[in-house]
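HOLO CASE FILE
Compound: tetrahydrodeoxyuridine
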Amino acid sequence: MEERKLETSYIYFKDINELSEADRELVLSASNALQMSYSPYSHFAVGAAVRLDNDEIILGANQENAAYPSGLCAERVALFASGMHKAKPLSIAIVAKSDKGQFATAYPCGACRQVMSEIEKRYATHLATIVGLKDGGFVKFENISSLLPFEFEI
Ligand code: THU
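Model generated. Tokens follow.
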């Protein structure tokens, strides 16, 4: 028997100006996607933007449904739409706004992390993830294993 330990590393940016130009563009794209959120039940809007290796940006926003589990998170809307393109996903930015119009923290849920993990395997890529925080800062994870170290595998 042995105890094993995990370490996660990520970068904290105190505001959008500290991000690289490409990541700033991705965050602004995710913020624009907030307008397409359909969230009449939670009143919580989430926007996502995926950068492909041909520099295309694919948008997603959460899409809810009266039968609650039938809805889909912003990340998976964007990632599954990216699956319709031949180019490789390189990074994803996620932002969220509460019903009061204030920015909220937008860490992806477990189901989205599982999908992000499979995107990395499918395209043999590292999916960098930039997450908006409610204090106006951002965090960046260089790959999904920092967010989901033990993914489900078949
Ligand atoms: N939501 C996302 O879009 N992404 C996540 O990672 C977690 C939650 C959405 C689902 C629902 O429309 C709303 O946020 C409130 O849970």
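CASE NOTES: The chain has a mean pLDDT of 97. The chain is about 25% helix and 25% strand.
CLOSED: yes
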